[in-house]
Specification:
Elements lengths: L2 E8 L4 H11 L2 H6 L4 E8 L6 E8 L2 H9 L1 H12 L3 E8 L5 H4 L5
Antiparallel strand pairs: 1-3, 1-4, 2-3
């Protein structure tokens, strides 16, 4: 059962996008993607609010997510969040296996 976090980073004057660029250029994003249990770590810019960036952050288990929270990467993320004065909100989802009934509505 995977855990997915949707994290919304909001700033001013392009600061959220600058945060993402620094995360990527510093290699922090790549290091997080290589952490044990990471399934997905991707940023998206919101069309309805260009000052907000969505991070989809998915982990194999709660244990993998907890380990990430204890990693040096988390300290770096918090440092950059402060640098760019970002505010956040979070949504948490627990994934189940695909349901056969849902499959009928998916185009592959």
């Amino acid at each position: 059962m995977a855990i997915t976090m949707n994290l919304y980073y909001t700033g001013e004057n392009g600061s959220a996008l600058s945060f993402v660029k620094e995360m990527m250029e510093s290699g922090t994003v790549e290091k997080i993607r290589k952490e044990k249990g990471n399934l997905r770590y991707e940023y998206f810019q919101m069309l309805s609010d260009p000052e907000t960036i969505l991070l989809i952050d998915s982990w194999e288990s709660q244990e993998a997510l907890d380990e990430h929270h204890r990693s040096p990467m988390m300290g770096r993320i918090m440092e950059l969040r402060d640098k760019y004065n970002l505010h956040m909100r979070a949504e948490r989802y627990i994934s189940e296996k695909e349901n056969e009934k849902d499959s009928a509505y998916l185009r592959r």
